[in-house]
Fold:
Amino acid sequence: MGRRYLITGASAGIGAAFARTLAAQGVTPILVARREDRLKSLAGEIHDAHGIESEIHVCDLSDRKAVDGLIQAIHGPVDGLINNAGYSLAHMFTATTLDAQMDFVETSVNTPTRLAHAVLPGMIERGYGRIINLSSIVAFSAGAAGHTLYPAAKAYMLKFSRSLSAEVRHKGIHVTALCPGSTVSEFTHANGTEKAAGHSPFRPLMPTQAVVDAGLAASDAGREVEIPGLFNKVAVAAMTLLPDALLTPLIRQGAKRFTLGD
Ligand SMILES: NC(=O)c1ccc[n+]([C@@H]2O[C@H](COP(=O)([O-])OP(=O)(O)OC[C@H]3O[C@@H](n4cnc5c(N)ncnc54)[C@H](OP(=O)(O)O)[C@@H]3O)[C@@H](O)[C@H]2O)c1
Structure:
């Protein structure tokens, strides 16, 4: 039997690209998101191209009970987990409801943690597993007004991946934090900043395929952290090495374009 990978947020962007790429390698994708029509259409496309029957699970990953149901509903081994589903709240913290912020934490932090905890025992038993956690270059940033919890959530994914890797890498399980920068997807459409963000030569957009290829190569090689693309690597080096007093005002000024005024 071929490998099976659970991919959250498979209805769009980076997650859909993971599903297509893995299916082309003979992996059976277990597709998870809220938009059933999108998942069905992707599953049909994968079947036509590769003859593989994807598994579809419609699930709101901000809903703990629904995630419990998802975990119960997945039968058979899960060899890979791509914790990809995500979004951001482009508003100021106090301009949003607490429920909206807590749903964000549930989707971006708690659910990936719970899914990893659910699939790891089977991976350890079989001596094989691949986990890719979607972080971001903002995991390395000083933070800015708007998207308040987003850098925190992505820093969690980075640190969680590294610690988990330290615990399980000798058991045949590779855990990777994938840290893209701006990528072509529905992300800015979903958070309402598409028009405001526009396109800038200072913010080159990476194609989803390049992000996915870098993530899968890093996962195969057992790298704990992958920053795809030269621009993103330079950005992370700057955020890590330059003095705070120089960098923080630059980041905060630049971030204004990606924030909805409240
Ligand atoms: N695009 C970028 O510039 C960028 C940069 C760095 C990191 N990332 C990270 O990459 C990951 C993928 O983002 P993307 O750029 O591909 O964005 P996208 O095109 O907007 O796709 C987001 C995916 O997440 C799913 N999702 C969101 N909330 C969900 C929920 N409550 N329950 C279930 N699924 C949910 C969406 O599916 P449904 O709406 O159908 O549920 C969709 O499939 C995210 O973790 C993001 O933070 C993106």
The chain has ten helices and seven strands.
